[in-house]
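Changelog entry

Holo records now carry the ligand SMILES as an explicit input line rather than a separate metadata file. Below, a converted record for zinc ion, shown in the new format.
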Amino acid sequence: MIVRVLGSAAGGGVPQWNCACTNCAAARTGAQPRRSQSSLAVSADGDRWVLLNVSPDVAGQIEAHPPLQPRGVRGTPIASILLTDANVDHIGGLVTLRQAGDHRFTVRSSAIVREIATAQPAFAPFARAPHRWLAADAGALPAADGDPIGAELRVRAIPVPGLTPGFAGREALRGAVTAYALTSASGATLVFAPVFAAIDATLAAEIRAADVVFLDGSFFTDDEMIATGVGDKYATALGHAPLTGPAGSLATLATCELGGRRCFVTHVNNTNPILDAGSAAAATLAQHGIAIATDGLVLEL
Ligand SMILES: [Zn+2]
Ligand SMILES: [Zn+2]
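Structure line, unchanged by the conversion:
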């Protein structure tokens, strides 16, 4: 299984177009890497690809990753799309993929995410022919003809604590956010959980059983957006567990025996001090054995 990090930032990216915070300014001068909005591309064979979330940056991400580019005059090797939730930074790239012609995308998400997303006219066409939008609420995802999922890629859906998007009321509903576990032909498992309000017992068990994990690293502290002067919302109000604090992810992950596995944070917000490699926050993350995903990172499992 080939795993490529297409984007590693939260909504807005780094730099974000209207932001001159410390990290955005550093990314503009080249002192920090630029980061597009978070997404992974996964393939069992390098031939057919699955996107895990499809960010508004998807066109540039395809151009940066030749295996995702067309192989004929028109067409795409992207067969399937898995969505963790209905936030626009995770589904907005569907708007870019609308010129698919008669190519069929198989989109999968929880039923509630499908309902929220397809209520928006921009996304509704993906639930109609030639496409199909299948419910992936929990457990092993069934095969669907022509789809690598359920065939060469085994995938399980894992409901995690989380909120519906702001445009859908920020409700704490089961199915609002889903993580995925993907198992390679060799039996190695990748857990993709770029959004969660907490690491519950189920997600903690999935992390312990995985070989590689990509976890929600949006915010270092709960009040980070307020403290950096870019907004008035707490991380938890946006449905993200901060990394630190009594209910933070690092405290939970300390019980997850991370030593034997590769652990990355992704979906990192541009306010997050871990993006400054010389910061105390970056040192704290490293002490926990956790790295920051970077755009273009490729792993083979
Ligand atoms: Zn997001
Ligand atoms: Zn910024």
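Spot-checked after migration. The helical segments are 22-29, 58-63, 88-91, 111-118, 201-209, 224-227, 249-253, 280-287. Residues 10-11, 87, 89-90, 267 surround zinc ion (ligand 1) (CB under 6 Å).
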